[in-house]
């Protein structure tokens, strides 16, 4: 991608289905991004290199997904001054709570923003919101996106009120 503003990194390709949701929303909002695999434990030199050079390459926000020990977001935040958004990935053993706790329990001076377990989409939206402070065109696209969400809810509410809950549920099952 040319001149990416957001870096999406993950500890393993098994995280791609979750982190892909961040990429999809950034694509929808026309925000250039890059995606790659950077393992905090298996490729520490790559982690350091990526984090240390991100600003020079034009990255303005990093989204880092990790499961289990979930060191990736915190380690990135310890190296760069860029905002880092951590996406805790659901794990088999503890359902992702372990990942969430690892990401949100950062020491003073090394903050990582965190979204919900498997919250790749919200990570992309949060990155867009951070960028919207600097880029009015992103702010406009984000406003349109959020207005569309509001319209969708209002349409559903009107339909539910018009046809009642039983018929609405039946239509949802179809």
TrEMBL record:
Q: Quick one: which residues bind substrate?
A: 12, 15, 42
Keywords for this protein: Isomerase, Lyase, Purine biosynthesis
* Reactions that this protein is recorded to catalyse: 5-carboxyamino-1-(5-phospho-D-ribosyl)imidazole + H(+) = 5-amino-1-(5-phospho-D-ribosyl)imidazole-4-carboxylate
One of its Pfam families is AIRC
Q: Does the keyword Ribosomal protein apply?
A: no
The record's GO molecular-function terms, alphabetically, read:
5-(carboxyamino)imidazole ribonucleotide mutase activity; lyase activity
- Family of the protein in this entry: Belongs to the AIR carboxylase family. Class I subfamily.
Biological role stated in the UniProt entry: Catalyzes the conversion of N5-carboxyaminoimidazole ribonucleotide (N5-CAIR) to 4-carboxy-5-aminoimidazole ribonucleotide (CAIR).
- Its protein name is N5-carboxyaminoimidazole ribonucleotide mutase
Origin organism of this chain? Alkaliphilus pronyensis
């Amino acid at each position: 991608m040319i001149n990416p503003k957001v870096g999406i990194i993950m500890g393993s390709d098994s995280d791609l289905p979750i982190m892909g949701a961040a990429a999809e929303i950034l694509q929808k909002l026309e925000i250039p991004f890059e995606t790659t695999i950077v393992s905090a434990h298996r490729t520490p030199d790559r982690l350091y290199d990526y984090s240390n050079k991100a600003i020079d390459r034009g990255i303005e926000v990093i989204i880092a997904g990790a499961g289990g020990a979930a060191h990736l977001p915190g380690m990135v935040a310890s190296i760069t001054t860029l905002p880092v958004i951590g996406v805790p990935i659901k794990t088999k053993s503890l359902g992702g709570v372990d990942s969430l706790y690892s990401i949100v329990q950062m020491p003073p001076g090394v903050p990582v923003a965190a979204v919900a377990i498997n919250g790749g989409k919200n990570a992309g939206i949060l990155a867009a919101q951070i960028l919207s402070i600097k880029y009015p065109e992103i702010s406009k696209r984000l406003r349109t996106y959020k207005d569309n969400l509001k319209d969708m809810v209002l349409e559903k509410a009107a339909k539910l009120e018009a046809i009642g809950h039983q018929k609405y549920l039946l239509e949802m099952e179809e």
